[in-house]
């Protein structure tokens, strides 16, 4: 079969695009100056990007998500533990959604 | 190899959360007409949950391959910023190792590596690869399985599992926190993404990238005063 299905096109296209994005990001980062403002910016990037991600996730939620987010933040600050924060967060959202009727 | 094992082990809670989404993705893929093998191949070569979801959802909704592809790629632009911060992990390694490292970079493996380093743990190249390998094994297994019997499983949201990632990223942020100098960049990032996503018709994935970059720019410019 020489005819390409939409699935084949999308899979191959996404794989190629991801490769370009992933490798391109690395070479871009490597090409930038190793000190000064550029380096400080790159170093700060993980924190700012994840902050943006969490903000977006909480914005898309309601009171239940905000409450569980606050609890998770508190647990994270106290325990610094990833699994404990995840489990507490899931339990809290489960309870809050029950109480608030779906959040 | 010690680090490979640490990374593999540390990411297990995140990989289990991802597996539930994998099952759901498998169901969607099967509904869209994809087979188990095709789904497994997609998970291995694309290896990007959110982009796979969006692209296959677009296909299932009747959009053409081009539109599905653009949606998936737009969602993945943030990965460019993620691998841009891998310089000290990848520099000087042979090309195949760079290729392997960037391919195994996911939101989870990448964030976990940075958080472990920020906490003072030994987390370099093999930590990233270990975490990425665990994520991929779970993702491919779950998505492939999902094409078979995901219809019988409860939706992640019913169990609160959808919040697992938000909670995980909050824990990772805690690990990345390095003091007062983070306040301005992080706040700027949060406010930017909130304003762009809520007050403009912009795609959330673009708001995310712009918020992250703006915060990093402020950290770059303001760093001298910190």
Can you tell me about this structure?
The complex is a heterodimer of chains A (103) and B (226). Chain A has 103 residues and is mainly alpha-helical. Chain A has two domains: 1-31; 62-103. Chain A is built from four helices and no strands. In chain A, helix 3 (63-79) runs antiparallel to helix 4. With 226 residues, chain B is mainly alpha-helical. In chain B, 77% of the residues lie in helices and 0% in strands. Chain B has helices spanning 2-10, 12-32, 36-45, 49-60, 65-75, 77-84, 87-90, 95-103, 107-118, 125-149, 156-159, 164-176, 183-199, 204-222. The longest helix of chain B has 25 residues, at 125-149.
Order of helices and strands of chain A: HHHH
Specify Rg of chain B, calculated over alpha carbons. 18 Å
Give the low-confidence spans of chain B. none
How much helicity do the residues of chain A have? over 70%
> Which chains make the largest contact?
A-B, 69 and 95 residues
Largest sheet descriptor of chain A: none
Q: Which regions of chain A contain 5 or more consecutive residues with pLDDT less than 50?
A: none
- Helix count from the secondary structure assignment of chain B: 14
Please state the CA-atom Rg of chain A, rounded to the nearest Å.
Answer: 20 Å
Integer count of domains of chain A? 2
Number of extended strands of chain A: 0
Most strands sheet of chain B: none
As a percent range, the share of helical residues of chain B equals over 70%
Task: Measure the end-to-end span of chain A.
Answer: 49 Å
* N to C succession of SSEs of chain B: HHHHHHHHHHHHHH
Count of discrete domains of chain B: 2
Brief sketch in words of this structure:
The complex is a heterodimer of chains A (103) and B (226). By secondary structure, chain A is mainly alpha-helical. Chain A is built from 4 helices and no strands.
Topology:
The complex is a heterodimer of chains A (103) and B (226).
Chain A: H1 6-31, H2 37-59, H3 63-79, H4 82-100
Helix pairs in contact in A: 3-4
Chain B: H1 2-10, H2 12-32, H3 36-45, H4 49-60, H5 65-75, H6 77-84, H7 87-90, H8 95-103, H9 107-118, H10 125-149, H11 156-159, H12 164-176, H13 183-199, H14 204-222
